[in-house]
Design brief:
- About 45% of the residues lie in helices and about 15% in strands.
- The chain contains twelve helices and 13 strands.
- The strands form four sheets. The chain has a six-stranded parallel beta sheet with strand order 2-1-3-4-5-10, sandwiched between helices. It has a three-stranded mixed beta sheet with strand order 11-8-13. Strands 6-9 form a two-stranded parallel ribbon.
- Strand 1, helix 2 and strand 2 form a beta-alpha-beta unit.
- Helix 2 packs across helix 8, helix 7 crosses helix 10 and helix 10 crosses helix 12.
- This is GDP-L-fucose synthase.
- It catalyses: GDP-beta-L-fucose + NADP(+) = GDP-4-dehydro-alpha-D-rhamnose + NADPH + H(+).
- Its EC number is 1.1.1.271.
- Keywords: Isomerase, Multifunctional enzyme, NADP, Oxidoreductase.
């Protein structure tokens, strides 16, 4: 283990929410040679540049957390960008890792890889068993391709490239843009602004009955490193050559109403919550089956309210950055 702590570990996408959490976790565990490269230093869409970076740095392990991400509006507006950039990023990094002799790599995907009407909770076996959610299909297809890239390099070249699929993530370095953020940062921002204005009501889209699962990004980082550190025999005993990815989540969910009530407590909002049932609810439930991950010895440890408090404090500490983004 001591020698592993000194090996070069490349975290692609270190400025994003997941990548930054992985870097924090690796540092806390004593990893002394963590490699990162921002967009101004390395264009991950440039195959030659990525290959040269790997050749120059003699990388031992890779966490592939880099991706083009966004909400429903962005996915609907720029589908070509989402499929092209994500395919190029993962293909360039995985091929460069192989060509430079990197034996172990972890690819981070998304729960959107599963069919729109997958049985709940969603098992790994649900992959490619039905049609995808149309709004983010290009992004999902790119993530599925990443899984299959890893599986293919393992089969053809004997590599040990692994994939983890997280549920809905939140935490430090989340996107708090008023128009493009996901549900947790959007609610934290809306309730905080309501408190600042002295509002006595917050209106929330939908009936509040849909159920969602949320995982703090620090738990995601811990799970990623746990999976990466598993010995190959143990990992393969719980996966299959053509079904090698592992779900990462809490295994529990809550209603949007329960989420909103918790956000109200965290932000100090004491007014009324009104649910606008004329607005769409989306999928009734979206929950990950995490039994495979539990069998491998890992479970989430950060409760929702604890995690929301942490995310909200991070927002308060950095809110100047988000002013004027609307």
């Amino acid at each position: 283990m001591a020698s592993e702590l000194n090996q070069p570990v490349f975290v692609a996408g270190h400025r994003g929410m997941v990548g930054s959490a992985i870097v924090r976790r690796l540092r806390a565990l004593g990893y002394a040679n963590i490699l990162t490269a921002g967009r101004d230093e390395l264009n991950l869409l440039d195959q030659r540049a990525v290959g040269a970076f790997f050749d120059e740095n003699q990388i031992a392990q890779v966490y592939l957390a880099a991706a083009k991400v966004g909400g429903i509006h962005a996915n609907n507006t720029y589908p070509a960008d989402f499929i092209y950039e994500n395919l190029m990023i993962e293909a360039n990094i995985i091929e460069a890792a192989h060509q430079s002799g990197v034996q172990r790599l972890l690819f981070l995907g998304s729960s959107c890889i599963y069919p729109k009407h997958a049985e709940q909770p969603m098992k790994e076996e649900a992959l490619l068993t039905g049609t995808l959610e149309p709004t983010n299909e290009p992004y999902a297809i790119a993530k599925i391709a990443g899984i299959k890239l890893c599986e293919s390099y393992n089969r053809q070249h004997g590599r040990d490239y692994r994939s983890v699929m997280p549920t809905n993530l939140y935490g430090p370095h989340d996107n708090f843009h008023p128009d493009n953020s996901h549900v947790i940062p959007a609610l934290l921002l809306r309730f905080h602004e309501a408190v600042q204005r002295g509002d006595d009501e917050v209106v929330i889209w939908g009936s509040g009955t849909p159920m969602r699962e949320f995982l703090h990004v620090d738990d995601m980082a811990a799970a990623s490193i746990h999976v990466m550190q598993l010995d190959e025999v143990t990992y393969q005993a719980h996966t299959q050559p053509m079904l090698s990815h592992i779900n990462v989540g809490t295994g529990t969910d809550c209603t949007i109403r329960e989420l909103a009530e918790t956000v109200a407590r965290v932000t100090g909002f004491q007014g009324n919550l009104t649910f606008d049932s004329s607005k769409p609810d989306g999928t009734p439930r979206k929950l990950m089956d995490v039994s495979r991950l539990k069998a491998l010895g890992w479970e989430a440890s950060i409760g929702l309210e604890e995690g929301l408090n942490d995310a909200f404090q991070w927002f308060l500490d950095h809110q100047e950055h988000f002013r004027g983004q609307a």
